[in-house]
Amino acid sequence: MADITTTGNDASLRLGAHQTAIAVLLPPSSPHHQIISTLRSLYANGDKTWPWPHVNLLYPFVSPGDLPKAVSTIQSYLASRVSQHDTLKINLDTQGSWKHKDHATIYLGSSACQADPTNGLQGLRAELVTLFAGNDPTGAREEPYTPHMTVGNTSLNEELIADLSRKARTLIDNSRPNTDEPQGISWDIERLVVLQRSARGSVMKIVGEILLNGEVVESQRSEELDTRSGIVKPTISNPVYRFSPASSRYTPYSPPVDALPPVVTDLKILTYNILTDNIIPAAATTARYPLLVDAILSLSTASASILALQEVTDDFLAYLLAHPIIQSRYAFSTHSPTHDVLPSLRNCVTLSSIPFGGDSQRWEWVDLGKRHKGAVVIEVDIREEDSKQSQGEESDLRKKIVIANVHLTCGMSDTSIATKVSQLKIITSHLRNRKAQYSDITPQPSESWVLVGDFNFPTSHATATTAYTSKLINSETFQFLLSDHGTSTNGKGFIPDIWQDTYNLTHAFNEISDVEELKFDIPKGTPATVSFGWEGSVKGDSTAIGLGEFGATFNPFVNPLAAEQVKWGANPRPQRYDRILVASPSIDKTTLWLDTRRTGRFGLEGGSDHWGVFSDFRIRHQPQILSANSSTNRDYLKLDVRDKGTMTDELLERYLFDNGMTPSPNDYALREEAREMLAKILTNESRRRPENPENAHRPPFPQSHDGEIQAEEVNSIIRLDISSTIPEASTKPSIKMVIQPVGSYFMNIFTPASDLDVLCASNISPRVFWVLAKQRIRRHGRRMERIGKKDGVVRVLRYVEAQSGAMMELEYIPTTVHDFQDLELESGSTEKKDQDGNATGRPCRVRIDLQYCQVPERVLDSWHQLPLLLPTDPIFSLSVSSLKKINAYRDSAYLLQTIPNLKLFRLSFRALKLWAIRRGIFAARFGYLGGIHLVLLLSRVFKRVSPDQIMDLTAGEVLRLFFKDYAGFNYSEDIIADPDTGSTGYRRSTREPLVLTTPHSPMVNVAHTASKHTLKTLRDEILLANQRIGRNCGWDAVTGTSDGDAEREFLNAFGNFVKIDIHYWGRNIPRGRSLVGWIESRCVNLLVELNEKVPNIHARLWPGRFIDVSETYAAEELRGFYLIGLTNASATAQDPTAITPSVGPSQAALDQKRVAFNRFTDILRSFETYLQDEQKRYEVTESYISVNRVTRQTVGDNVRIDKHVWWDEEYETMGTANAPGEGSYNPNDDGGDGYDSLDEDSMSDEEEEEGSGFRRRVPGRGAGLQENADSNDGSENREPGKATLPFSTTRRQRSKQHQAEKATAVNPDTTLYGVKKPKLRPAHDIINRIKWDPEMDVDQYILGYEDRFLGVMETAVGKWIERRGGDETDEDWVPLHRVLYVRRKEDGVRVWDRDQRIDTIFGSGGSY
Questions:
Q1: What is the Cα–Cα distance from 70 to 17, expressed in whole angstroms?
Q2: Which stretches within 1041-1146 are classed as H helix?
Q3: DSSP summary character for residue 724
Q4: Is the torsion defined by CA of 778, 783, 785, 786 positive or negative?
Q5: β-pairing, 594-602 with 578-583?
């Protein structure tokens, strides 16, 4: 351009050419240059041809050939006027718009120029136009000139115009946030730029600059400015803002020079698409703002939290950052509503509780190759606490976490999917390239990358299949979408394989997320009906959960805002659009020091069509390499490399699924539906809002949810002012109620056969609550019956009161069950199946164990905070019984918070449970293991694994550590306790062979039912499993198969058994079920007695009821028996001499063995008498009980586990008996584990009276823990365990019974010396034995009785039995008290004689 200054003026210069222009540029040093450039790149149509923020002075100008002459003319004029004018200054302080034919222009203007057109920039332009007067065909001199800077262009849509105008106005308002000067974007004009392009439509280039003093210079900025070539730079650096309490604003942050990075151990990262559905914030949009903020604040924060938001608008950002809690929790931000403008309509914004920005204290905006699509990248420096750092010295313990916040392109087509893949590659490449800047730093900082946001990849396999069959996508794209969560090896997935999805790290493939998040997956009140399988076949209605839909963040079937965004005719499905990915720059992924502890969702009612996703990370300061070394004081378990086996987690997941241990979506839906229905009933919601049967099958959306219980509230808290249902509301006190799931469902470790354990807490007395609960449950059932509905009903199966308190066993019949006839219930499944074995889509019933706890209102008001409070908090100043109940919730929540790697824990737990079930040791009521036992045992192992190992272990390795640790544990001296809390608060009793304590005080031994016999059995099974798993035998070899291998092994391992026969033929099935459960609960007492009085015998009880399949009997009768294997503690299992008298080498040995045998026999007789004397449950006219010693040969080979389950109204058949239900998490349950078999009675209906040798004994608690018979004083505040027992006898009756039993009490020692004869078995026992014993023929026995007129008479036993079932007024009817003897027909030998005290059948009355 040097030659253009030498050219003289030419009067022939003409204006009107669009290839040249004279303009004023906004200096790059201006603080507003970057944001205006960004806005122009996104909105201005001419940004590609006019790539700088500018104000045109002369345009159109002269032709390119005349440009040198024109510049020379302007130069001469400016040189002559330099002393006539002051320095020019422009201030853009107004905003306006022009509408054209097909678009609108939004610009910034100057009020000063409008007020005085002859001054400033307008005056200069007028003077320059005069130089070309007469040569101006465009009439520029006559046209009014408005100095302006174009911000952007929009269509003629008024909302779009208003939105961009609002951004322009915000630019002006934020121009001088910290001064009192007039607002506006102002700068001093020192030069004019000369622009030229080759043709109209091409890019303008700066060809020269003219200083206002008339000097023409070469442009010093041409190279810098021309690099943009019309689009935004790929990477733009931006300032970091920090909240200033002094100004109550987010202002630019400048850290102190000597500031050290924060010490961070735990990090929480959240991502949330907040939905921009209106361009102009209308009332409907702004009404969502409080819900969005509440959703963001609903999660408890870690020591460091980072929040990534998508679709943020200027209006919402101003609202969000004005919230005081947001200001205190997230002090750092990438944007400030008082200092800049969000460039797009939908923007990415990142907030943080700790400083970010790295050494430059800035963040990056990375262009992803498409307008309005970019990534917000921040860099967080953290450090490990170190003595050098505390002194300000350099240390190599610094780490960098680079977090990229993205919102990828939407759409379901080959092009849109390819665009998303390209955008992921761009951000991944950017992160790799930025790593190169540290190449000259020694040592290089260790980095971890996190990629968060809305990826917009459809994850539903059903959606991908529909798109493929509709030819919207090709086969390659289809395979990409079907890859495992989008990530795959060999580059097959659409997400680069360097990334790891935190959802995959914390959830098994196609697994329901945490139970607390179940409400995100299943529509409220509508259970999923899906045929769930690994093949991915989905059947049923639109609410089913299919492959790729687990953990969805966009679910139109649950989220009403999402339902408004989709096209229902296109078969929309739930999608997991939002994700959190982690990666390490190193090729070796073991260097990743971000341990993902938990991933979940939030914002169920947060006011967006998406739900947020959060991940909790633990930052390790050592590489994630398997090592046995540890710097902590904890005695970590060691896993040798040679111990690592080939049993992978994938094989185990499939194995557990095939064996019915993995819950399906139906199982989750059924329990959630049951919980909601129970909550409605207890809070009287179902009565206030009766259901309309016509609305039973409404579509999920759109529909109204007014009046429904807010089941999605934190921790399922349901509060009710019950006075609203009582006429005298003003005089009734307020009742608050909390319905809290606990146990296996709460911890998401349940199996398809598990109960739903619910704890209800309120401020009313237990007596009032149970009366109220019964009334409301029955009233609800009657109301459903009146409106013709037989489903959606909760019914009471059993009400139990025991030492530990009351419990109500309920059954829920779901809304989709209508007919249970002719359908089989298979083990490990909660779905009904047809005759062909296909799932009908109808879930079965679910049992609910409801417990109650009375607590003050202060506890109810702080319920969701209880797990977070210290044990010393005054809120826990409650009674011991109340604390024990509350601890069911506190302990479960505590374990969820402290167990590392919950995904692996749940997988390992289900494998252990399957092992315990198949090995016959999963029955806490018998003194074995239950659900809570396995949880505490396994959590202890997890917490004793080094943090460097726990995230990389497999379930097989965990089980090796489990069996190895407990195979060598000293149970007699050591206590099994949580490693974090210890067991200092528990005093062990000498009667407790096994102590397994709960975490919180008052600590409870959950293994209090264990005896020395059961402990030895447990140890033997653990030792056997430790041997098998060490040989990599496969899962079947470790757990056993489901075809009865363990039962046969048990039967063949013993030569002698105690056989407890039970026959019930009465019509009152609940009574029979109660009898069976009561007998099972008393088997533990028999083991205790055997251990105390015959210590040389080892007894193993099999926790299942056997039947002889060779026998035939009526379907309505229950016939079965329980077996206890017997062996000498020091002999082999087949040695029968342990309990059989035989000839020994000396008379002393013979006498000793005979004494032991007699004592053993007396124990069995006493136990049998004890069972038969239970008049509430045992009635000779409808049941029969016997306890005998039998041999293996007598048992026979036709013995199988009974597959019948006794319901209140009907029988149903189970496929196998190897999958009993999960136990309630009730550590203070005296009777056992409360498991699912309806034949189990885990809690005693009453405590036994003194005088019986088999009064209720609880190991470790002493014998004779009795109920207080005088406790029924009418007080509402008495302890739950002190309440009067239902159906119990009166105090006088109990006193008489006690005296009678005391007079005939059995003392085995005195019996051996003949001091007193034991009691003779009554006649009805003999007759029942003859009737039911398959080895005895009823026709071969004669019964002798005393006739009132004829004396002693005889009749056949079979004939007497027939008469016994007839009318008592029949003249041939013989009462039992007249029976004198029973003899065999063939030889006349009396097998039973009342007067002579002969009993050769049972050996009672001294007849050994």
A1: 12
A2: 1045-1053, 1069-1093
A3: G
A4: positive
A5: unpaired
Burial degree of 431 (CB within 10 A; 0-12, 13-18, 19+) = buried
Enumerate long-range contacts of 689-697, CB under 8 Å, 24 or more apart.
690/783, 690/787, 691/787, 691/789, 691/792, 693/787, 693/788, 693/789, 696/789, 696/815
SS3 819: coil
> Contact 72/7 with Cβ under 8 angstroms?
yes
User: Backbone phi, then psi, for 233, in 5-degree steps?
Assistant: -60, 145
Residue 464 three-state SS:
helix
What are 211's strand-pairing partners? 191
For the chain, percent of residues with pLDDT exceeding 70: 70
In 1264-1397, where do the E strands start and end?
1341-1347, 1351-1356, 1379-1384, 1390-1393
| Cβ within 8 Å of residue 1043, ≥6 positions away | none
**How is residue 797 written in tokens?**
């199966």
Q: Which residues pair with 1186 in a beta bridge?
A: 1061
Reduced to 3 states (helix: H, G, I; strand: E, B; else coil), residue 169 is helix
Residue with tokens 């930025």: 434
**How many residues can be counted in the chain?**
1408
- Determine the distance from the C-alpha atom of residue 703 to the mean position of all C-alpha atoms in its chain, rounded to a whole number: 27
C-alpha 1104 chain-centroid distance:
32
What is the phi/psi pair of residue 605, to 5°? -115, 40
Neighbours of 284 (CB within 10 A): 9
Measure the CA–CA gap between 268 and 261, rounded to whole angstroms. Answer: 17
Q: Are 1182 and 1064 in contact (CB under 8 A)?
A: yes
Give residue 470's pLDDT: 85
Helix pair angle (649-658, 955-967), 10° resolution: 80
From residue 206, alpha-carbon distances to 53, 733, 1017 in Å are 13, 81, 91
Mean pLDDT, the chain, rounded, equals 74
The two structure tokens encoding residue 1026: 């430790």
What is the distance between the alpha carbons of residues 800 and 1326, in angstroms, rounded to a whole number?
33
In a 10 Å sphere around its CB, with 0-12 CB exposed, 13-18 middle and 19+ buried, how is residue 1067 labelled?
exposed
Task: Please write the tens of the pLDDT for every residue from 1218-1248.
Answer: 333 333 333 333 333 333 332 333 333 333 3
CA distance 344 to 643: 56
What H or E segment, with its residue span, contains residue 900? none
Paired tokens of 225: 């400015």
pLDDT at 581 over 90: yes
Rounded to whole angstroms, the Cα distance separating 1372 from 1368 reads 9
Q: How far is Cα 664 from Cα 839, in angstroms, rounded to an integer? A: 12
Integer CA distances (angstroms), 1263 to 988, 1242, 1255, in order: 16, 18, 7
Structure tokens at 1100: 């193993």
For residue 1203, is it left (φ>0), alpha (ψ between -120 and 50) or beta? alpha
Count of H helices and E strands in the chain?
38, 47
CA angle 773, 774, 780 (to 5 degrees): 90
Q: Output the pTM of the full model.
A: 0.62
- The predicted structure's pLDDT at residue 1100: 92
568 or 631, greater pLDDT? 568
- The DSSP result for 1326-1342, as a single string, is HHHHHHH-TTS-GGGEE
Give 192's strand partners: 210
Burial class of residue 509, CB neighbours in 10 A (0-12, 13-18, 19+): middle
Q: Which three-class secondary structure state does DSSP give residue 769?
A: helix
Torsion of CA 722, 726, 728, 732, to 10 degrees: -30
C-alpha closest to that of 756 among 766, 748, 744: 744
- Alpha carbons 667 and 831: distance in angstroms, whole number: 8
Name which of 1008, 1013, 1046, 1051 is nearest 914 in CA terms: 1046
